[in-house]
Amino acid sequence: MEIGLLVLFGLILVVGIFFVSLYNSLSRLLVRIQEAWSAIDVQLKRRVDLIPNLVETVKGYAAHEKEVFENVTKARAALMSADTVKQAEEADTQLTGALKSLFAVAEAYPELKAQEGFVNLQKELSDTEDKVAYARQFYNSVVRDYNSRVVVFPSNVVAGMFGFSKKEFFEASDEDRKAVEVKF
Questions:
Q1: Would you give the end-to-end CA distance of the chain in angstroms?
Q2: Which of 44, 107, 171, 172 could form a disulfide with 176 if both were Cys (CB 3.0 to 4.6 A apart)?
Q3: pLDDT in tens, 157-184
Q4: Total-model pTM
Q5: Domain limits of the chain?
Q6: What is the pLDDT of residue 67?
Q7: Which residue did the predictor score with more confidence, 91 or 107?
Q8: What phi, psi does 116 have (nearest 5°)?
């Protein structure tokens, strides 16, 4: 009888440790998702901080392109006030389109394209875009790992018991998927 109780106690202990381990792994992945989102947020803020300098540089050469500057400013404000992944996605898409228009204006002014300050800002913005892309990729890989755990047995049992739910991926918009037109 005592051996049976010890075996039962040991089995309950092993199952308990197993469930705690699954819970902890889901919790760690949630923290990684928060870290990954923070990395995206940092790069988007860096991009937002560079834009006023870029706009001011271009404004001096293209004072009549008021609508382009207004669109960039609105998109920047929308990105700064985004609270969710979805809002950030939408604002990011809006800002990407506005920046394309801004660079199209810059194309019309060869002397601007040769100006050192503009070239440096453009390089910084390009570097930031690369960092945003990497941060998005990292975020999505962590969300993929987490979502897999939430739906795969036996961790889905623990996820259901403790309210862990799937997270949204940071997805490219239709605008981001369009091919970039390069003209010489």
A1: 87
A2: 172
A3: 999 999 999 998 887 665 554 544 433 2
A4: 0.63
A5: 2-177
A6: 74
A7: 91
A8: -60, -45
Residues across the chain = 184
**Alpha helices per DSSP H over the chain:** 2-59, 66-80, 85-107, 110-114, 116-151, 155-162, 174-177
Taking the C-alpha atoms of residue 66 and residue 56, their distance in angstroms, rounded to an integer, is: 12
Q: How much is the average pLDDT of 122-150?
A: 88
Q: Which residue type does 105 have?
A: V
60 φ/ψ angles, rounded to the nearest 5 degrees: -60, -30
Residue in the structure block whose two tokens are 């939430």: 150
Please give the Cα distance from 141 to 130 (Å, whole number). Answer: 17
CATH fourth-level superfamily of 2-177: LemA-like domain (1.20.1440.20)
Structure-token match 């969710």, residue found: 84
| Residue 168 main-chain phi, psi, to 5 deg | -80, 145
For residue 35, pLDDT over 80 is answered with: yes
- DSSP H or E run through 168: none
The chain-wide mean pLDDT, for the chain, equals 81
Q: Which of 119, 139, 123 is nearest to 33 (CA)?
A: 139
Residues 71, 98 contacting (CB under 8 angstroms): yes
Q: Residue holding tokens 């920047």?
A: 76
